[in-house]
Protein backbone atom coordinates (compact mmCIF):
# COMPACT_ATOMS: atom_id res chain seq x y z
CA UNK A 1 0.00 0.00 0.00
CA UNK A 2 1.13 3.54 -0.70
CA UNK A 3 2.87 5.35 2.14
CA UNK A 4 1.01 8.33 3.57
CA UNK A 5 2.19 11.57 1.93
CA UNK A 6 4.63 13.45 4.15
CA UNK A 7 4.11 17.08 4.84
CA UNK A 8 7.02 19.08 3.47
CA UNK A 9 5.11 22.32 3.30
CA UNK A 10 7.16 24.21 5.82
CA UNK A 11 10.86 24.70 5.18
CA UNK A 12 12.21 27.37 7.55
CA UNK A 13 15.82 26.20 7.29
CA UNK A 14 15.73 26.46 3.49
CA UNK A 15 14.06 29.87 3.80
CA UNK A 16 16.87 31.05 6.07
CA UNK A 17 19.52 29.73 3.69
CA UNK A 18 17.81 31.49 0.77
CA UNK A 19 17.77 34.78 2.68
CA UNK A 20 21.46 34.40 3.54
CA UNK A 21 22.42 33.45 -0.03
CA UNK A 22 20.55 36.40 -1.49
CA UNK A 23 22.86 38.75 0.45
CA UNK A 24 25.92 37.51 -1.41
CA UNK A 25 24.74 35.59 -4.48
CA UNK A 26 22.71 37.39 -7.13
CA UNK A 27 19.07 36.49 -6.59
CA UNK A 28 20.27 33.79 -4.19
CA UNK A 29 20.88 31.42 -7.12
CA UNK A 30 23.73 30.52 -9.43
CA UNK A 31 21.38 29.68 -12.28
CA UNK A 32 18.01 31.42 -12.77
CA UNK A 33 16.16 28.11 -13.31
CA UNK A 34 16.63 27.36 -9.58
CA UNK A 35 14.62 30.40 -8.61
CA UNK A 36 11.03 29.83 -7.44
CA UNK A 37 9.73 33.12 -8.89
CA UNK A 38 7.30 31.51 -11.30
CA UNK A 39 5.92 28.92 -8.87
CA UNK A 40 6.15 30.78 -5.56
CA UNK A 41 7.14 29.41 -2.17
CA UNK A 42 10.48 28.58 -0.60
CA UNK A 43 13.22 27.19 -2.83
CA UNK A 44 14.47 24.04 -1.19
CA UNK A 45 18.17 23.73 -0.41
CA UNK A 46 18.97 20.08 -1.01
CA UNK A 47 21.73 18.55 1.03
CA UNK A 48 21.57 14.88 0.05
CA UNK A 49 20.36 12.59 -2.71
CA UNK A 50 20.00 8.80 -2.86
CA UNK A 51 18.45 7.03 -5.84
CA UNK A 52 15.10 8.64 -6.64
CA UNK A 53 15.08 10.70 -3.43
CA UNK A 54 16.48 14.05 -2.32
CA UNK A 55 16.59 15.53 1.17
CA UNK A 56 16.33 19.24 1.92
CA UNK A 57 18.10 21.16 4.67
CA UNK A 58 14.89 20.94 6.73
CA UNK A 59 15.17 17.16 6.72
CA UNK A 60 12.20 16.48 4.43
CA UNK A 61 12.53 13.75 1.82
CA UNK A 62 11.17 14.23 -1.70
CA UNK A 63 10.88 11.98 -4.71
CA UNK A 64 12.88 13.88 -7.26
CA UNK A 65 11.56 14.57 -10.76
CA UNK A 66 14.37 17.01 -11.64
CA UNK A 67 17.37 14.64 -11.47
CA UNK A 68 19.80 17.58 -11.43
CA UNK A 69 18.12 18.74 -14.70
CA UNK A 70 19.02 15.46 -16.32
CA UNK A 71 22.45 14.13 -15.37
CA UNK A 72 21.31 11.79 -12.59
CA UNK A 73 20.19 9.12 -15.08
CA UNK A 74 20.98 6.24 -12.72
CA UNK A 75 19.65 8.06 -9.65
CA UNK A 76 21.46 10.21 -7.12
CA UNK A 77 24.73 9.02 -5.62
CA UNK A 78 24.75 5.76 -7.57
CA UNK A 79 27.39 3.60 -5.83
CA UNK A 80 29.34 2.86 -9.04
CA UNK A 81 29.47 6.54 -10.00
CA UNK A 82 30.52 7.64 -6.52
CA UNK A 83 33.19 4.91 -6.40
CA UNK A 84 34.56 5.99 -9.79
CA UNK A 85 34.66 9.64 -8.69
CA UNK A 86 36.37 8.78 -5.39
CA UNK A 87 38.92 6.62 -7.14
CA UNK A 88 39.71 9.30 -9.71
CA UNK A 89 39.80 12.10 -7.13
CA UNK A 90 42.17 10.16 -4.91
CA UNK A 91 44.74 10.22 -7.74
CA UNK A 92 44.56 13.98 -8.12
CA UNK A 93 41.92 16.41 -9.36
CA UNK A 94 43.44 17.08 -12.73
CA UNK A 95 46.75 17.66 -14.39
CA UNK A 96 46.06 19.97 -17.31
CA UNK A 97 47.35 17.14 -19.47
CA UNK A 98 45.70 14.23 -21.24
CA UNK A 99 44.40 11.33 -19.16
CA UNK A 100 43.72 7.73 -20.24
CA UNK A 101 40.03 7.86 -19.28
CA UNK A 102 39.24 10.60 -21.84
CA UNK A 103 39.59 8.28 -24.84
CA UNK A 104 37.57 5.60 -23.00
CA UNK A 105 34.65 8.00 -22.61
CA UNK A 106 34.98 9.16 -26.23
CA UNK A 107 34.92 5.51 -27.38
CA UNK A 108 31.79 4.86 -25.31
CA UNK A 109 30.05 7.83 -26.95
CA UNK A 110 31.13 6.99 -30.50
CA UNK A 111 29.96 3.40 -30.04
CA UNK A 112 26.46 4.71 -29.30
CA UNK A 113 26.42 7.65 -31.71
CA UNK A 114 28.60 6.75 -34.72
CA UNK A 115 28.27 10.17 -36.38
CA UNK A 116 30.26 11.56 -33.46
CA UNK A 117 33.37 10.32 -35.28
CA UNK A 118 35.59 12.72 -33.36
CA UNK A 119 34.87 14.47 -30.07
CA UNK A 120 36.15 17.36 -28.05
CA UNK A 121 35.28 17.54 -24.36
CA UNK A 122 34.34 20.83 -22.76
CA UNK A 123 32.81 21.65 -19.37
CA UNK A 124 29.30 22.91 -20.18
CA UNK A 125 26.61 22.51 -22.81
CA UNK A 126 26.98 26.23 -23.53
CA UNK A 127 30.58 25.72 -24.62
CA UNK A 128 29.61 22.70 -26.70
CA UNK A 129 27.01 24.56 -28.80
CA UNK A 130 29.21 27.67 -29.01
CA UNK A 131 32.05 25.55 -30.40
CA UNK A 132 29.77 23.69 -32.81
CA UNK A 133 28.64 27.01 -34.26
CA UNK A 134 32.20 28.26 -34.61
CA UNK A 135 33.12 25.08 -36.50
CA UNK A 136 30.05 25.46 -38.77
CA UNK A 137 30.91 29.06 -39.59
CA UNK A 138 34.52 28.15 -40.29
CA UNK A 139 33.55 25.18 -42.47
CA UNK A 140 31.06 27.13 -44.57
CA UNK A 141 32.60 30.60 -44.47
CA UNK A 142 29.10 31.96 -43.78
CA UNK A 143 27.92 34.22 -40.95
CA UNK A 144 24.26 33.42 -40.21
CA UNK A 145 22.76 30.81 -37.92
CA UNK A 146 19.17 29.65 -37.62
CA UNK A 147 17.64 28.61 -34.32
CA UNK A 148 14.08 27.81 -33.32
CA UNK A 149 11.96 29.79 -30.87
CA UNK A 150 11.68 28.02 -27.53
CA UNK A 151 14.88 26.02 -28.05
CA UNK A 152 17.63 26.57 -25.50
CA UNK A 153 21.27 26.03 -26.41
CA UNK A 154 22.99 27.61 -23.42
CA UNK A 155 23.84 31.22 -22.72
CA UNK A 156 26.28 32.30 -25.43
CA UNK A 157 25.33 35.64 -26.97
CA UNK A 158 24.13 34.46 -30.36
CA UNK A 159 21.84 31.78 -28.98
CA UNK A 160 19.77 33.69 -26.43
CA UNK A 161 17.13 35.05 -28.81
CA UNK A 162 13.65 33.62 -28.14
CA UNK A 163 15.29 30.92 -26.04
CA UNK A 164 13.55 28.37 -23.86
CA UNK A 165 14.44 27.27 -20.31
CA UNK A 166 15.01 30.16 -17.89
CA UNK A 167 14.23 32.80 -20.53
CA UNK A 168 10.88 31.14 -21.23
CA UNK A 169 10.14 30.96 -17.50
CA UNK A 170 10.98 34.64 -17.05
CA UNK A 171 9.21 35.64 -20.28
CA UNK A 172 12.37 37.25 -21.70
CA UNK A 173 12.58 37.73 -25.50
CA UNK A 174 16.38 37.63 -25.31
CA UNK A 175 19.15 39.03 -23.14
CA UNK A 176 20.33 42.54 -22.50
CA UNK A 177 24.02 42.91 -23.17
CA UNK A 178 23.92 41.19 -26.56
CA UNK A 179 24.91 43.60 -29.33
CA UNK A 180 22.48 44.16 -32.22
CA UNK A 181 25.26 43.00 -34.55
CA UNK A 182 25.45 39.64 -32.80
CA UNK A 183 21.70 39.22 -32.46
CA UNK A 184 21.36 40.13 -36.14
CA UNK A 185 23.34 37.05 -37.13
CA UNK A 186 20.73 34.74 -35.64
CA UNK A 187 17.53 34.01 -37.53
CA UNK A 188 14.82 32.77 -35.18
CA UNK A 189 12.07 30.64 -36.70
CA UNK A 190 9.00 28.87 -35.33
CA UNK A 191 9.69 25.19 -34.59
CA UNK A 192 8.09 22.46 -36.66
CA UNK A 193 7.40 24.95 -39.46
CA UNK A 194 9.09 23.72 -42.61
CA UNK A 195 7.59 26.55 -44.67
CA UNK A 196 9.35 29.16 -42.50
CA UNK A 197 12.64 27.32 -42.90
CA UNK A 198 12.20 27.12 -46.67
CA UNK A 199 11.56 30.86 -46.78
CA UNK A 200 14.67 31.60 -44.71
CA UNK A 201 16.78 29.55 -47.10
CA UNK A 202 15.12 31.19 -50.10
CA UNK A 203 16.06 34.65 -48.75
CA UNK A 204 19.45 33.96 -47.12
CA UNK A 205 20.46 30.52 -48.38
CA UNK A 206 24.04 31.43 -49.30
CA UNK A 207 24.61 33.17 -45.95
CA UNK A 208 23.34 30.47 -43.55
CA UNK A 209 26.14 28.47 -41.96
CA UNK A 210 23.99 26.18 -39.86
CA UNK A 211 20.62 25.34 -38.41
CA UNK A 212 20.96 24.42 -34.75
CA UNK A 213 18.07 22.45 -33.31
CA UNK A 214 17.42 20.53 -30.14
CA UNK A 215 17.08 16.92 -31.33
CA UNK A 216 13.68 17.15 -29.64
CA UNK A 217 12.77 20.43 -27.99
CA UNK A 218 12.79 19.98 -24.21
CA UNK A 219 13.32 23.51 -22.88
CA UNK A 220 9.78 24.81 -23.44
CA UNK A 221 8.37 21.60 -22.05
CA UNK A 222 8.78 18.58 -24.29
CA UNK A 223 7.90 19.26 -27.93
CA UNK A 224 9.17 16.54 -30.28
CA UNK A 225 9.87 17.29 -33.92
CA UNK A 226 6.88 16.75 -36.21
CA UNK A 227 7.05 13.58 -38.27
CA UNK A 228 9.45 14.21 -41.15
CA UNK A 229 10.63 17.61 -39.83
CA UNK A 230 14.20 16.61 -38.90
CA UNK A 231 14.72 14.76 -42.18
CA UNK A 232 13.35 17.67 -44.23
CA UNK A 233 15.43 20.19 -42.26
CA UNK A 234 18.57 18.15 -42.90
CA UNK A 235 17.83 17.81 -46.61
CA UNK A 236 17.16 21.54 -46.91
CA UNK A 237 20.39 22.48 -45.11
CA UNK A 238 22.50 20.19 -47.23
CA UNK A 239 20.87 21.34 -50.47
CA UNK A 240 21.93 24.90 -49.54
CA UNK A 241 25.39 23.98 -48.29
CA UNK A 242 24.55 24.58 -44.61
CA UNK A 243 25.34 22.24 -41.72
CA UNK A 244 22.97 20.73 -39.16
CA UNK A 245 23.87 20.92 -35.47
CA UNK A 246 21.77 18.56 -33.40
CA UNK A 247 21.82 19.69 -29.77
CA UNK A 248 21.51 16.57 -27.64
CA UNK A 249 22.75 18.20 -24.43
CA UNK A 250 19.45 17.33 -22.78
CA UNK A 251 18.21 14.37 -24.86
CA UNK A 252 21.60 12.64 -25.24
CA UNK A 253 21.74 9.23 -23.53
CA UNK A 254 18.43 10.08 -21.85
CA UNK A 255 15.71 9.95 -24.52
CA UNK A 256 17.29 6.56 -25.22
CA UNK A 257 20.76 4.90 -25.33
CA UNK A 258 21.72 6.89 -28.47
CA UNK A 259 19.78 10.02 -27.56
CA UNK A 260 16.83 11.28 -29.60
CA UNK A 261 18.75 10.48 -32.80
CA UNK A 262 18.42 6.80 -31.85
CA UNK A 263 14.73 7.18 -31.03
CA UNK A 264 13.79 9.08 -34.16
CA UNK A 265 16.28 7.56 -36.65
CA UNK A 266 15.36 10.34 -39.07
CA UNK A 267 18.56 11.90 -40.37
CA UNK A 268 22.22 12.20 -39.43
CA UNK A 269 23.43 15.64 -38.32
CA UNK A 270 26.83 17.03 -39.21
CA UNK A 271 27.66 18.07 -35.66
CA UNK A 272 26.16 17.01 -32.33
CA UNK A 273 26.45 18.34 -28.81
CA UNK A 274 26.19 16.45 -25.52
CA UNK A 275 26.11 17.50 -21.86
CA UNK A 276 24.28 16.56 -18.67
CA UNK A 277 24.27 12.70 -18.64
CA UNK A 278 27.65 12.56 -20.37
CA UNK A 279 29.24 14.01 -17.23
CA UNK A 280 27.20 11.95 -14.79
CA UNK A 281 26.57 15.03 -12.62
CA UNK A 282 29.97 16.72 -12.89
CA UNK A 283 30.82 19.54 -15.32
CA UNK A 284 31.44 17.82 -18.63
CA UNK A 285 29.99 18.23 -22.11
CA UNK A 286 31.11 17.43 -25.64
CA UNK A 287 30.92 18.50 -29.23
CA UNK A 288 31.25 15.79 -31.85
CA UNK A 289 30.76 15.18 -35.53
CA UNK A 290 32.29 14.17 -38.84
CA UNK A 291 36.05 13.89 -38.62
CA UNK A 292 36.57 16.30 -41.51
CA UNK A 293 34.62 19.00 -39.64
CA UNK A 294 35.96 18.29 -36.16
CA UNK A 295 39.53 18.39 -37.45
CA UNK A 296 39.06 22.08 -38.13
CA UNK A 297 39.63 22.46 -34.37
CA UNK A 298 43.05 23.42 -33.02
CA UNK A 299 45.62 21.91 -32.86
CA UNK A 300 44.70 20.24 -36.19
CA UNK A 301 42.93 23.20 -37.76
CA UNK A 302 42.36 26.95 -37.55
CA UNK A 303 39.31 27.01 -35.23
CA UNK A 304 40.41 27.79 -31.70
CA UNK A 305 38.80 26.20 -28.67
CA UNK A 306 40.28 25.16 -25.36
CA UNK A 307 39.68 24.83 -21.62
CA UNK A 308 41.73 24.48 -18.44
CA UNK A 309 39.22 21.99 -17.03
CA UNK A 310 38.18 20.31 -20.30
CA UNK A 311 38.20 16.53 -19.97
CA UNK A 312 38.82 16.76 -16.23
CA UNK A 313 39.59 13.22 -15.03
CA UNK A 314 37.10 13.26 -12.15
CA UNK A 315 34.28 14.47 -14.42
CA UNK A 316 35.27 11.97 -17.11
CA UNK A 317 35.20 9.17 -14.51
CA UNK A 318 31.69 10.18 -13.45
CA UNK A 319 30.49 10.27 -17.05
CA UNK A 320 32.08 6.95 -17.92
CA UNK A 321 30.60 5.19 -14.88
CA UNK A 322 27.19 6.66 -15.71
CA UNK A 323 27.26 5.59 -19.37
CA UNK A 324 28.57 2.13 -18.47
CA UNK A 325 25.76 1.78 -15.94
CA UNK A 326 23.22 2.94 -18.52
CA UNK A 327 22.68 -0.53 -19.98
CA UNK A 328 19.56 -2.03 -21.50
CA UNK A 329 18.17 -2.90 -18.07
CA UNK A 330 18.63 0.70 -16.85
CA UNK A 331 16.88 2.09 -19.94
CA UNK A 332 14.05 -0.41 -19.45
CA UNK A 333 13.61 0.80 -15.84
CA UNK A 334 13.79 4.41 -16.99
CA UNK A 335 11.16 3.84 -19.69
CA UNK A 336 8.86 1.97 -17.30
CA UNK A 337 9.13 4.68 -14.63
CA UNK A 338 8.55 7.41 -17.22
CA UNK A 339 5.45 5.70 -18.60
CA UNK A 340 4.05 5.06 -15.15
CA UNK A 341 4.51 8.65 -14.01
CA UNK A 342 2.94 9.94 -17.23
CA UNK A 343 -0.03 7.62 -16.85
CA UNK A 344 -0.65 8.37 -13.17
CA UNK A 345 -0.35 12.14 -13.61
CA UNK A 346 -2.68 12.10 -16.60
CA UNK A 347 -5.19 9.91 -14.75
CA UNK A 348 -5.20 12.20 -11.69
CA UNK A 349 -5.64 15.34 -13.82
CA UNK A 350 -8.38 13.73 -15.89
CA UNK A 351 -10.16 12.67 -12.68
CA UNK A 352 -9.97 16.26 -11.42
CA UNK A 353 -11.19 17.65 -14.77
CA UNK A 354 -7.94 19.51 -15.55
CA UNK A 355 -7.22 19.90 -19.29
CA UNK A 356 -3.67 18.75 -19.97
CA UNK A 357 -1.44 16.99 -22.45
CA UNK A 358 1.57 14.81 -21.69
CA UNK A 359 4.23 14.90 -24.44
CA UNK A 360 7.23 12.65 -24.81
CA UNK A 361 10.60 12.46 -26.53
CA UNK A 362 11.66 8.90 -25.85
CA UNK A 363 11.79 8.54 -22.06
CA UNK A 364 11.66 12.33 -21.60
CA UNK A 365 8.29 13.90 -20.99
CA UNK A 366 6.50 16.94 -19.64
CA UNK A 367 2.94 17.88 -18.80
CA UNK A 368 1.28 20.98 -20.28
CA UNK A 369 -1.75 22.37 -18.48
CA UNK A 370 -4.35 23.57 -20.98
CA UNK A 371 -6.43 26.71 -20.81
CA UNK A 372 -9.40 25.34 -22.66
CA UNK A 373 -12.11 22.92 -21.79
CA UNK A 374 -11.32 19.28 -21.29
CA UNK A 375 -11.57 17.44 -24.60
CA UNK A 376 -10.24 14.24 -26.13
CA UNK A 377 -7.97 16.26 -28.42
CA UNK A 378 -4.71 15.33 -26.74
CA UNK A 379 -5.23 11.60 -26.67
CA UNK A 380 -3.54 9.44 -29.28
CA UNK A 381 -0.47 10.32 -31.30
CA UNK A 382 1.15 13.75 -31.33
CA UNK A 383 2.68 15.45 -34.34
CA UNK A 384 5.83 13.35 -34.18
CA UNK A 385 3.94 10.12 -33.90
CA UNK A 386 5.06 10.05 -30.26
CA UNK A 387 2.13 9.05 -28.06
CA UNK A 388 0.39 11.81 -26.12
CA UNK A 389 -1.89 11.37 -23.17
CA UNK A 390 -4.44 13.82 -21.96
CA UNK A 391 -7.34 16.06 -22.63
CA UNK A 392 -5.87 19.18 -24.29
CA UNK A 393 -4.51 19.89 -27.76
CA UNK A 394 -0.87 18.95 -28.43
CA UNK A 395 1.81 21.67 -28.12
CA UNK A 396 3.75 22.04 -31.37
CA UNK A 397 5.89 25.15 -30.95
CA UNK A 398 6.80 28.03 -28.65
CA UNK A 399 3.58 29.94 -29.27
CA UNK A 400 1.43 26.99 -28.20
CA UNK A 401 3.77 26.27 -25.27
CA UNK A 402 3.37 29.86 -24.08
CA UNK A 403 -0.41 29.50 -24.22
CA UNK A 404 -0.38 26.90 -21.41
CA UNK A 405 -2.11 27.60 -18.10
CA UNK A 406 0.89 28.51 -15.94
CA UNK A 407 -1.19 29.28 -12.84
CA UNK A 408 -2.45 25.70 -12.86
CA UNK A 409 1.11 24.45 -12.96
CA UNK A 410 2.01 26.71 -10.05
CA UNK A 411 -0.79 25.26 -7.91
CA UNK A 412 0.08 21.71 -8.94
CA UNK A 413 3.80 22.22 -8.30
CA UNK A 414 3.22 23.67 -4.84
CA UNK A 415 0.91 20.86 -3.74
CA UNK A 416 3.30 18.21 -5.03
CA UNK A 417 6.22 19.83 -3.20
CA UNK A 418 4.24 20.03 0.03
CA UNK A 419 3.49 16.33 -0.35
CA UNK A 420 7.11 15.39 -0.93
CA UNK A 421 7.56 15.40 -4.71
CA UNK A 422 10.07 17.80 -6.25
CA UNK A 423 9.16 18.97 -9.76
CA UNK A 424 10.95 21.51 -11.98
CA UNK A 425 10.03 24.99 -10.65
CA UNK A 426 8.76 26.07 -14.09
CA UNK A 427 6.06 24.91 -16.53
CA UNK A 428 8.61 25.29 -19.35
CA UNK A 429 10.85 22.37 -18.37
CA UNK A 430 10.99 18.63 -18.95
CA UNK A 431 10.36 16.25 -16.05
CA UNK A 432 13.09 13.75 -15.32
CA UNK A 433 12.83 10.28 -13.86
CA UNK A 434 15.84 8.09 -13.10
CA UNK A 435 16.50 4.38 -13.41
CA UNK A 436 16.19 4.33 -9.59
CA UNK A 437 12.51 5.37 -9.57
CA UNK A 438 11.25 2.12 -8.10
CA UNK A 439 7.82 1.06 -6.91
CA UNK A 440 8.22 2.89 -3.56
CA UNK A 441 9.06 6.16 -5.31
CA UNK A 442 6.20 5.76 -7.76
CA UNK A 443 3.77 4.97 -4.94
CA UNK A 444 4.87 8.15 -3.19
CA UNK A 445 4.12 10.19 -6.32
CA UNK A 446 0.77 8.42 -6.72
CA UNK A 447 -0.18 9.36 -3.15
CA UNK A 448 0.65 13.02 -3.72
CA UNK A 449 -1.32 13.36 -6.95
CA UNK A 450 -4.98 13.67 -5.93
CA UNK A 451 -4.36 16.77 -3.79
CA UNK A 452 -2.15 18.35 -6.47
CA UNK A 453 -4.67 17.67 -9.23
CA UNK A 454 -7.41 19.16 -7.06
CA UNK A 455 -5.23 22.24 -6.44
CA UNK A 456 -4.69 22.62 -10.19
CA UNK A 457 -8.43 22.37 -10.78
CA UNK A 458 -9.31 25.03 -8.21
N1 LIG B 1 21.57 22.79 -24.86
C1 LIG B 1 20.47 22.25 -24.31
C2 LIG B 1 19.49 21.50 -25.17
C3 LIG B 1 20.24 22.37 -22.94
O1 LIG B 1 19.15 21.82 -22.39
C4 LIG B 1 21.19 23.08 -22.16
C5 LIG B 1 20.97 23.25 -20.70
O2 LIG B 1 19.91 23.03 -20.17
C6 LIG B 1 22.30 23.62 -22.78
C7 LIG B 1 22.47 23.44 -24.13
C8 LIG B 1 23.32 24.37 -21.99
O3 LIG B 1 24.02 23.51 -21.15
P1 LIG B 1 24.77 24.10 -19.84
O4 LIG B 1 23.71 24.53 -18.90
O5 LIG B 1 25.57 22.92 -19.36
O6 LIG B 1 25.64 25.20 -20.31
Please indicate the percent range of residues in DSSP E strands (runs of 2 or more): 15-25%
| Biggest sheet details | 7 strands, mixed
Tally the beta strands.
15
Structural Rg? 21 Å
Order of helices and strands: HEEEHHEHEHHEHEHEHEEHHHEEEEHHEH
Q: Would you give the CATH topology of the domain at 79-325?
A: Aspartate Aminotransferase, domain 2
Amino-to-carboxy terminus distance: 28 Å
Question: Strands of the biggest beta sheet: in what spatial order?
Answer: 4-10-9-8-7-5-6
Q: What's the CATH class label of the domain at 79-325?
A: Alpha Beta
Helicity level? 25-40%
C-alpha geometry:
globular
Q: Number of DSSP helices?
A: 15
What bound compounds does this protein have? pyridoxal-5'-phosphate
Q: Helix- and strand-based class?
A: alpha/beta
Mean pLDDT across residues = 94
Which segments are poorly predicted (pLDDT under 50) over 5 or more consecutive residues?
none
CATH architecture of the domain at 79-325: 3-Layer(aba) Sandwich
Q: State the CATH superfamily name of the domain at 79-325.
A: Type I PLP-dependent aspartate aminotransferase-like (Major domain)
Briefly, what is this?
The modification N6-(pyridoxal phosphate)lysine is found at residue 276. The chain is built from 15 helices and 15 strands.
Please tag this protein with its features:
4-stranded mixed β-sheet, Aspartate Aminotransferase, domain 2, binds pyridoxal-5'-phosphate, alpha/beta, 15% strand, 7-stranded mixed β-sheet, 4pyrrol_synth_GluAld_NH2Trfase, single chain, Aminotrans_3
Amino acid sequence: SAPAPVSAGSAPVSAGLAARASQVIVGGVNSPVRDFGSVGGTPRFFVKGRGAWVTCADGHDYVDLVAAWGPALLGHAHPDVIAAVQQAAAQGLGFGASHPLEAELAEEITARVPHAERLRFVSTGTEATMTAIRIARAATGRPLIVKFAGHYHGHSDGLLAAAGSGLATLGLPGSAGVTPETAGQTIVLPYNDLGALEEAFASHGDQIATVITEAAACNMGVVPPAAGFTAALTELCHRHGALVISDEVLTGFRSGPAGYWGVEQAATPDLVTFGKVVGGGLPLAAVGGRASLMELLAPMGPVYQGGTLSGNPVAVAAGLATLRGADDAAYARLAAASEQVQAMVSAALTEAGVAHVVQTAGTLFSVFFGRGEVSAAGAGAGAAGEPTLGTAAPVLDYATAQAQHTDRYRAFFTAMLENGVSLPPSPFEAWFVTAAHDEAALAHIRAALPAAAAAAAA
